[in-house]
Specification:
There is one protein chain. α1 runs antiparallel to α3. It is built from three helices and no strands. It has 125 residues and is mostly helical. The protein is 90% helix and 0% strand.
Length: 125
């Protein structure tokens, strides 16, 4: 196989590696964001639960206290989404890079065979 024949394969491999690395970086960034968001969530929880139960129960609909409760109730699902999607992207990136390694390992015997045939013909001829 000469270089012209390998060029399409190498382009595909480069694209897969770049996509894999992008997914990997995005996943790591999402995981790093989780720590920051958890601090915000803990602060929001502390601010809400410091208010007396009577005051929380007596808060009118649409008040700041009720909107704070809604944010508190939505935060765990947002954190879970960040964690799971982040891990999914990291695993997708790792899979893409391992897939490329597999392609190279699969191609290696064929390249080696071509090189050995060329050497064999040169020594015979």
């Amino acid at each position: 196989m000469n270089m012209k024949q390998m060029m399409p394969i190498l382009m595909i491999v480069m694209i897969i590696v770049i996509v894999g690395l992008v997914y990997l970086v995005q996943g790591v960034q999402m995981q790093n964001k989780v720590a920051v968001e958890e601090k915000t969530f803990n602060t929001l929880q502390a601010d809400y639960w410091i208010v007396s139960k009577a005051e929380r129960d007596a808060a009118p609909t649409g008040s700041e206290l009720n909107s704070q409760l809604v944010r508190l109730q939505q935060y765990p699902s947002q954190l879970l989404q960040l964690k799971l999607v982040g891990i999914g992207k990291i695993l997708t990136g790792i899979f893409a890079v391992l897939f490329v390694i597999g392609i190279f390992l699969f191609m290696m015997p064929f390249r080696l065979e071509a090189i050995l045939r060329k050497l064999h013909h040169e020594t015979r001829g």
